[in-house]
Amino acid sequence: MVLPESTARSERDGSSNYDVIVVGAGFAGLYMLHRLRDAGYRVKCFEAGSGPGGTWYWNRYPGSRCDIHSLGYSYAFSAELEQEWEWSEMYAAQPEIERYANHVADRFELRRDIQFNTRVVSGTYDEAGRAWTIKTDTAETASTRYLVMATGGYSIPAKPQIEGIGSFKGEAYFTNQWPLHEVDFTGKRVGIIGTGSSGTQTATAVAAEPIKHLYVFQRTANFIVPGWNAPATPEYTREFKAGYAKFRETARWSGNGTVFPQVSTLPKLTTGPIADLDADALKERLEQLWVTGGLYFFGGVSDLMTSEAANTRVSDFFRQKTRDRVRDPKLADLLTPRGFFIGERRIIADNGYLEIFNRDDVSLVDVKSDPITAVTPSGVKTRDGEYPLDILIFATGFDSGTGAMLNIDLKGRNGKRFADKWADGPLTYLGLMANDYPNMFMIAQPGSPSIRSQVLVSIEQHVDWIFDMLQHAREAGVVEIEASREAEEAWTKHVSDVAAKSLFARADTQYVGANIPGKPRVYLAYLGGVGVYRKTCDTVRENGYEGFILKAASKDLTKSKTWAGAGETPLVWGTAV
Ligand code: NAP
């Protein structure tokens, strides 16, 4: 195999020069490393954790579980891997997903190029050398022509602004930085702050432990749909695997990448709009959504995001279902979401969460009406009460989307700080690159479907696209790739225009940065849908990488600095399953 010039050089002088450095060994980093190394690039991956898996490594809290069918929430790039890996449950729990990440790392012999327990803290672009130099928290330095940020959308914990937060004398944990050791809940008074996906899963699991009492501190009630987790039976698995090729292809061109499997052991999901259905047809469709469970609404109700009438019908139905599951009407009322549309905030797929509130040793503390005023050495203080605790769990979310990119001190052309570039919100071309930051790619970051998509679908599409681009660069002798300012401006406007068409950009959610004080309000993900987005990226490639500035050693190979545009982009995120 003919190695790229930089490879040959670094192998000669033994320096830490790479063709590509990949930051993060989550599902994005693992696949990027695999593809590039297979094609002979000299690649190094740095990972802060002690093992692979990224988000699925760090979020090892009790009850952590996937809420999309695991046979779908898995890599599609290897038919052998698809067939050989056996999921024990339809919706796998975190330990099994982490085992899968480890299996992938072993099967494709990725570990030898991953340096664990090492966090990349900075990256500086050298314009003369057309290369990046990164530094790590282990005081190492390495250089690379290309830098790929596989840093995830949910990597940096949000820091709740609660007085005295560090003063608690009992055991305190964040769900997204859960320790590797076992936590013993026996006979303990446990408090959980936060009722998103992480908090509700943790609460359900902790309630199953021999606790003394569980206090769930809820600020906003979310829409809860049943997860219907069950063992992955041999028939289900066999049928799913037999239909893999079609399933994967449907997901690639779908709305948000989440596709309900067409497997005979599962209920059937009908798709289409519901705003104009008559009462009987509506009831049938909504009950079908109930038995389907999970996060399949966006495929099942195609006008969910665009029609207030349709959304209200679904929202009201699920509000009633919540009330039906909780015996105490006062509690049921507190647990019923109001004031926003279903889907605006993350829908929660539960497996018995609401029912824990039918027990005497579990209490809901409504911190909307009685706000938390402080964490004290002995527990949590609200305006009207005090809750002594032995264990306090923060399930308070993430600096979503932008957090990880901004956590690394990146300097591009003329030493320009990336944090300054994104000070008013993310600016990208296709979510893949940013002007003034040549040779730096991003996987599933803001400006792409990212945190509002089935992220495995998004990751594979990005990795394949970046791989193609690097192969093109290699063949054409390109040494510098950069998003043009014009294309970046046009794309960023397009992302914002598409979001403005959706009901979902209105609410104060993590998706617009509203959970982090001072974060600019920008819709962080591209809502055109993964299929539309894929087509757009493919067209850009077919048009000779329009919008990208491509420089060979002494020649400018740029085809066009402008992006031709997406034409009229329908909001299809909620359809096409
Ligand atoms: P999240 O959805 O942002 O929820 C954070 C929770 O903490 C909210 O209930 C929030 O209340 C509450 N909170 C934050 N600060 C608070 C404070 N000072 N006082 C009281 N409550 C406070 O975070 P998450 O649950 O970790 O989920 C984040 C994302 O991770 C999800 O969108 C999902 O995509 C992903 N996730 C997926 C799975 C899965 O696939 N199974 C599991 C877990 C997470 P407010 O709502 O009032 O702000």
Tags for this model:
577 residues, 20 strands, disordered N terminus, five-stranded parallel sheet, 17 helices, alpha/beta, eight-stranded mixed sheet, binds NADP nicotinamide-adenine-dinucleotide phosphate
Which radius of gyration do the C-alpha atoms yield?
24 Å
First-to-last CA distance: 42 Å
* β-strand number: 20
Uncertain segments of ≥5 residues (pLDDT<50)? 1-14
The biggest beta sheet reads: 8 strands, mixed
**Portion in beta strands:** 15-25%
Q: Helical stretch count?
A: 17
Estimate the mean pLDDT confidence.
94
Give the % helix: 25-40%
The shape, in one word, is globular
Q: Based on helices, strands and strand pairing, what is the structural class? A: alpha/beta
List the ions, cofactors and other small molecules found in this model: NADP nicotinamide-adenine-dinucleotide phosphate
